[in-house]
């Protein structure tokens, strides 16, 4: 909204409230609708429109919208930024929930479960992806790698009318989603359905084709108007200690790849996993399903483990043993196989560059751990075979703020520029596609503005009722260990989804609470005859600047401004 109050109307007015005892208002400040970005949007690396998705469902009944239609709208809102709702609803560690303002009232909204519900409902009802443009563009784009970054890029380009071909070295598309995440967390049929939806947009995926071997990078540059590189980081790293070349030692990525490809891996009765990330936890839980006793050795404590907390808890419930503050020194061989690992006890020192406390060896303190099979899950890196020219030393592939590499018309994203979450890769692919589109159309590049956030100090939590968070159902540990493929968690039912959507506080956006209208004695706010969930119109010529509306707006949507300067005036909200 612009400056609706002209300067000639800013003289002190007489009236009720907000001034001295004589009723004279001494400030010219006026209310302004100030939409803010919800913190969940900032917490999500892909900036999914979470609030809009939740409130679309929460307000459906009041707006006489059938819930089926509300779910479809919610899907289309999320599908603007991601093709992988059902996938992320299962594997994302939901950093958005860590920023949710609801946590300061009772508990964060179960955003991850809501995304999964909408994603599964969309697959069940075959909802169509919303297109950005119906115009068929002349430019063609090649994508190297059918992982989450490459497929996200392809999806966004196809939605804008571009011709896209994806080249994948592995037998099936999906990247680490298919070959690095166990089926009990992400059923392959769910992944297949969401990839099929991308193909239905006209994206062609060619598998078993390695760029640099089966097809040269220079050929792509000549044939296509742009190239996106999303080869991921499928190459596991070993420990660099003696005897690790034994046949019963595998990296975490190799082990999970073999399992997810349907290969049989003889792990024996005692599996030793080294590492504290998600790959280590996945390898350990898979090994338990193969019938082995499992021990994870990690050089820091549980508090420093980077793995998803829910996955750590799941591993503990399933009987995985953890040996903290222990670092591998060497493998002990019995014939041509490893039978034990010598470890050194550690203690924590000062924080290192990762923010975690640095592990320091305790001199003279050693112990052995027996094993029949070892999984080294300490890290991973891209396989640059055939694409060595793209690598820039230890930095792997380097990109600028527009996801452009040092090579003309070549962009990149995903784990091959920096190890991260699936949602990071999806964001990289999306932004690269948007940037390509902008350049193809000859438009100026602009960075999005995420500065105006509805932080907790803008909220009045006492206004909202306490509401218990909904939780998804989960199989017991005994049931989980019966199968490698049995999905262990359930999707929300409709009752849970509707209930959870109504826990959203609508941070920074009007939700028709009527507070401003009910407190204003001068009838500045015009209330419609029925709920619209739209901001009320204001008759600013009636306003005396008492600030009650802004001070009591529970979601921080109303601010007071100085109409002459246009500056927002700092106020203290009623708590």
Account of the protein in words:
By secondary structure, this protein is of the alpha/beta class. The protein has 4 domains: 1-36 and 508-575, Alpha-Beta Plaits, CATH 3.30.70; 40-129 and 457-501, Fumarate Reductase Iron-sulfur Protein, Chain B, domain 2 (Orthogonal Bundle); 140-234 and 382-440, FAD/NAD(P)-binding domain; 237-379, FAD/NAD(P)-binding domain (3-Layer(bba) Sandwich), CATH 3.50.50.60. It has 18 helices and 20 strands. It has helices at residues 39-43, 50-58, 67-79, 85-91, 95-99, 111-124, 148-159, 176-179, 188-199, 217-223, 252-260, 278-289, 309-317, 422-440, 477-480, 494-501, 515-519, 548-552, and strands spanning 30-33, 140-144, 163-167, 204-206, 226-229, 235-236, 249-251, 270-274, 293-297, 321-323, 326-334, 337-351, 357-370, 373-376, 380-381, 410-412, 525-526, 537-538, 558-562, 567-569. The chain has a 5-stranded parallel sheet with strand order 4-3-2-5-16, sandwiched between helices. The longest helix has 19 residues, at 422-440. The two termini are 27 Å apart. Mean pLDDT is 94; it is low at 1-22.
């Amino acid at each position: 909204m612009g400056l609706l109050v002209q300067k000639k109307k800013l003289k002190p007015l007489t009236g009720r409230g907000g001034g001295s005892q004589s009723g004279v208002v001494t400030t010219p400040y006026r209310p302004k609708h100030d939409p803010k970005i919800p913190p969940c949007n900032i917490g999500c690396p892909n900036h999914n429109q979470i609030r809009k998705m939740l409130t679309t469902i929460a307000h459906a009944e009041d707006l006489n919208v059938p819930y089926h239609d509300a779910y479809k709208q919610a899907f289309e809102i999320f599908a603007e930024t991601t093709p992988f709702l059902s996938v992320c609803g299962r594997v994302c560690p939901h950093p958005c929930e860590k920023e949710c303002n609801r946590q300061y009232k009772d508990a964060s909204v179960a955003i991850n479960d809501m995304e999964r519900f909408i994603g599964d409902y969309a697959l069940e009802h075959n909802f169509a992806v919303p297109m950005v443009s119906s115009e068929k563009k002349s430019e063609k784009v090649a994508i190297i790698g059918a992982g989450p970054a490459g497929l996200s890029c392809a999806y966004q380009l196809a939605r804008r009318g571009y011709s896209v071909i994806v080249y994948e070295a592995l037998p099936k598309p999906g990247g680490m989603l298919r070959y690095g995440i166990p089926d009990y967390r992400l059923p392959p049929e769910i992944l297949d359905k969401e990839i099929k939806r991308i193909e239905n947009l006209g994206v062609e995926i060619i598998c078993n084709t390695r760029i640099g071997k089966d097809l040269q990078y220079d050929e792509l540059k000549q044939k296509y108007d742009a190239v996106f590189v999303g080869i991921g980081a499928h190459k596991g790293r070993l420990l660099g200690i003696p005897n690790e070349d034994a046949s019963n030692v595998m990296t975490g990525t190799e082990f999970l790849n073999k399992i997810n490809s349907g290969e049989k891996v003889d792990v024996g009765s005692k599996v030793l996993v080294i590492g504290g990330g998600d790959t280590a936890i996945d390898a350990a839980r898979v090994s338990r399903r193969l019938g082995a006793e499992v021990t994870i050795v990690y050089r820091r404590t549980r508090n420093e483990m980077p793995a998803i907390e829910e996955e750590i808890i799941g591993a503990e419930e399933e009987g995985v043993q953890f040996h903290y503050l222990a670092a591998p020194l060497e493998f002990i061989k019995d014939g041509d196989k490893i039978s034990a690992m010598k470890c050194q006890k550690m203690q924590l020192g000062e924080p290192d560059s990762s923010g975690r406390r640095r592990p320091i060896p305790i001199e003279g303190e050693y112990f052995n751990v027996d094993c029949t099979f070892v999984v080294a899950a300490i890290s991973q890196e891209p396989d640059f075979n055939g694409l060595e020219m793209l690598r820039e030393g230890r930095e792997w592939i380097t990109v600028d703020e527009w996801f452009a590499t040092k090579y003309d018309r070549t962009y990149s994203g995903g784990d091959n520029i920096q190890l991260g979450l699936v949602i990071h890769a999806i964001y990289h692919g999306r932004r690269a596609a948007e940037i390509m589109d902008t350049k193809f159309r000859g438009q100026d590049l602009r960075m999005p503005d995420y500065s105006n956030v509805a932080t907790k100090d803008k909220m009045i939590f006492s206004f909202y009722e306490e509401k218990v968070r909904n939780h998804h159902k989960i199989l017991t540990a005994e049931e989980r260990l019966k199968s490698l493929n049995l999905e262990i968690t359930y999707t929300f039912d409709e009752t849970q989804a509707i209930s959870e959507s109504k826990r959203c506080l609508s941070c920074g956006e009007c939700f028709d609470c009527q507070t401003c209208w009910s407190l204003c004695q001068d009838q500045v706010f015009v209330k419609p005859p029925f709920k619209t969930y739209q901001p009320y119109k204001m008759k600013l010529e009636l306003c005396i600047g008492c600030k009650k509306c802004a001070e009591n707006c529970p979601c921080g949507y109303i601010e007071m401004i100085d109409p002459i300067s246009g500056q927002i005036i700092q106020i203290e909200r009623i708590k």
